[in-house]
UniProtKB/TrEMBL annotation:
Belongs to the malic enzymes family. GO terms for biological process: malate metabolic process. It comes from Russula ochroleuca. SMART domains: malic, Malic_M. The active site is at residues 88, 160. This is Malic enzyme. Divalent metal cations. Prefers magnesium or manganese.
Amino acid sequence: MTVILTPYWSDGTQRLKAEPQPPQPPPRGHFPAAYDDALHAARCLAQLRSKDKPIEKYIYLSQLKHANENLFYRLCLAHMAEFTPIIYTPTVGDACLQHSHIFRRPEGLYISIKDKGKVGEILNSWPHKSEARISVVTDGSRILGLGDLGVNGMPISIGKLSLYIAGAGIRPSSTIPICLDLGTNNQEYLDDPLYLGLRQSRVSDEVMTEFMKEFMFAMSRAFPKLLVQFEDFSTEHAFYYLDSFRHRYPVFNDDVQGTGAVVLSGFLNAAKLSSGASGQPLTSHRILFLGAGSAGVGVAMQLLSFFKLQGLTQEEARHHIYLVDSKGLIFDSRGPMADHKKYFSRKDYNGPPLTNLTEIIEYVKPTALFGLSTIKGAFNQDVIEAMAAHNARPIIFPLSNPVRLSECEFDDALRWTNGRVLFASGSPFPDALWEGKVHYAGQGNNMYIFPGLGLGSILCRASAVTDAMVEASSLGLADSLDEDERDSELLYPRLNRIREISAYIAMRVIRKAQEEVRDPNYAYNIEAYRRAIQGVDRNSALRSLGDAQLLTYVTSKMWNP
Ligand SMILES: NC(=O)C1=CN([C@@H]2O[C@H](COP(=O)(O)OP(=O)(O)OC[C@H]3O[C@@H](n4cnc5c(N)ncnc54)[C@H](OP(=O)(O)O)[C@@H]3O)[C@@H](O)[C@H]2O)C=CC1
Ligand SMILES: CC(=O)C(=O)O
Ligand SMILES: [Mg+2]
């Protein structure tokens, strides 16, 4: 008996059925004698390039992945910079918006609130159970900057896992895309006859938490070697479930931790260039965030660690960070605020609310401005010129996704700063020419981090993903620029080196995991400490390897199409 996966339709009833496979029909054709694999790859690439619309390219590549996984990943690896904007942001945003309309066959697991009480049963029906190593789990409640998309969030889990496979050589059969269907508050979808999810609004926090506890426990039982990546949960839930589960299971939140790591890394490289230009010490940087959600606060927490690495105390480090939300600068006397904003709320400002971003820049005089607000165009000419007035090399990162929600465009940022900007964006921008010189927009996207962080955590069997491991991934990425990339003032390495980068990050993550276990000051509670020891010691052989050997080992474990 072979398990086949079928999605549920509108009634939300059982959608994972163990059914006998019908006998396969005989092939309806055969390859011509002159068929050649390499030529077929060229043919597929030509077919892909013949499509005008990004969403058509996405559909084509989804079909190709299903028909010939090896060929898909071979092409993907050979054309990383061309493929990532299709299988990932920005096009994956359109794929999510239209998922219920372009859906052809299931890929991954849809688990709904109606499955409460039998989640384990469903997980146990997953084929390749023993091979499972990494799952990207979303509840669809905040997909990129597009809001609550319900089960239409599934392509984000699929897209991230495709990057794990292409970028870090995780075996395809070791990946499980999961979308939890806990209802949606998106009325347009609830009214859409083709919508694939439950036709109900989101369940209460209480019900969700009960479900999440069952889900995570069932995952750990069904897949003992699985690392879970939480993706695109709405902000309150992102923090709450990360805190709830990170000491019990190997889990990390990509939007909080992955984004924090990737932005710290780009900032470190940008700060070297900007400090070089102005001679200012790294500890004099002041960082202003537009957006104080899971991503904004996640990055702020990681930046805190940068200042601490420079020798500042936690309190001094906190002083360098300013957060702005939809009501303006966040400060204590403004009134009640969500828990996740409190830590960075300013105590040293007591004036009237500051809501205008240019005025806030005049007050803070930041050296770096990060956008994680989902507000397109929020970094307008006034804002960018204000940054340029205070800084020889202003660091400006519009990080919201997809690209149409970017806080500013690359060529505008170049124009309004006279080519001085140090720029990275969440979604890709093409290279731009400014006064005869080519400038490169860095892609400050967690896709540079999670493949390597995941691979390292999986290989050392870490039973917890610690803050220090996340920081190691960030510093590893920052150290990965080659000479040519440095000379070209790139803030992130070129994407065609993603495998090399992921292997290096994985090596640094494994090393840090081993140090953590040795460190008597290991910051986690005793249970997490015990589990980490168990996890890492299972691979104690890795300890005896030098860095170069460990890197070779990591590379040797990568799956190749
Ligand atoms: N580049 C990358 O790798 C990543 C990028 N992102 C992107 O970051 C964005 C935010 O994600 P996330 O933090 O989870 O989302 P949230 O919706 O939780 O956060 C958005 C934040 O922006 C604030 N905001 C909204 N409107 C305005 C406004 N007009 N002026 C100022 N602030 C405003 C909100 O304020 P309030 O709190 O008052 O509502 C909130 O703090 C998304 O576009 C996402 O795609 C996320 C992860 C990774
Ligand atoms: C990149 C990413 O994780 C996000 O935009 O949510
Ligand atoms: Mg995300």
